[in-house]
TrEMBL record:
Pfam families: HIT. The active site is at H95 (tele-amp-histidine intermediate). Residues 5-108 form the HIT domain. InterPro entries: Histidine_triad_HIT, HIT-like, HIT-like_sf. Gene3D superfamilies: HIT-like. SUPFAM superfamilies: HIT-like. One of its GO terms (molecular function) is catalytic activity. GO terms for biological process: nucleotide metabolic process. The lineage of its organism: Bacteria, Bacillati, Actinomycetota, Actinomycetes, Streptosporangiales. This is Histidine triad (HIT) family protein. A motif (Histidine triad motif) lies at residues 93-97. It comes from the Bacteria.
Length: 134
């Protein structure tokens, strides 16, 4: 059994501002929010990344409900929903970020720089590699 910060929160061994919990997922405030009200939704079972998650349906129903709750509860204009897998993943227990967004909140586009494809052929080659792996 793996132990990490999120397993400790789920087990009630570490305090957190829990905003929702059931048999599938536990949701709580990120201690270092992008914006106040930034929630992390984590599966109750220890799973490291998206590709390790067996039945995705029930978990993403919780993510969807939390996106609705963050938007309505905070009267936000919208939300940003994201997940890091391995790279930039601070805790090795799957977690989906649900961040409240508002117009002119200062978060422009997002953190990462964007690039372009050199040609339509190069773009198609990337598309083919991904499509073949499905
Ligand atoms: Zn864990």
């Amino acid at each position: 059994m793996s132990t990490d910060l999120f397993c400790e929160i789920i087990a009630g061994e570490r305090p957190a501002h829990v905003v929702g919990a059931d048999e599938v997922a536990v949701s709580f405030l990120d201690t270092r929010p992008v914006f106040k009200g930034h929630v992390l939704v984590v599966p109750r079972a220890h799973v490291e990344t998206l590709t390790d998650l067996g039945d995705v349906g029930p978990f993403f129903e919780r993510v969807q409900a939390m996106a609705r709750a963050v938007e309505q509860g905070l009267e936000a204009g919208g939300t940003f929903v994201a997940m890091n897998n391995r790279i930039s993943q601070s805790v090795a227990h799957l977690h989906v970020h649900v961040v409240p967004r508002n117009k002119k909140d200062g978060l422009r586009g997002f953190f990462w720089p964007r690039t372009t494809y050199d040609s339509a052929e190069e773009a198609q080659a990337y598309a083919d590699l991904i499509a073949k792996a499905r």
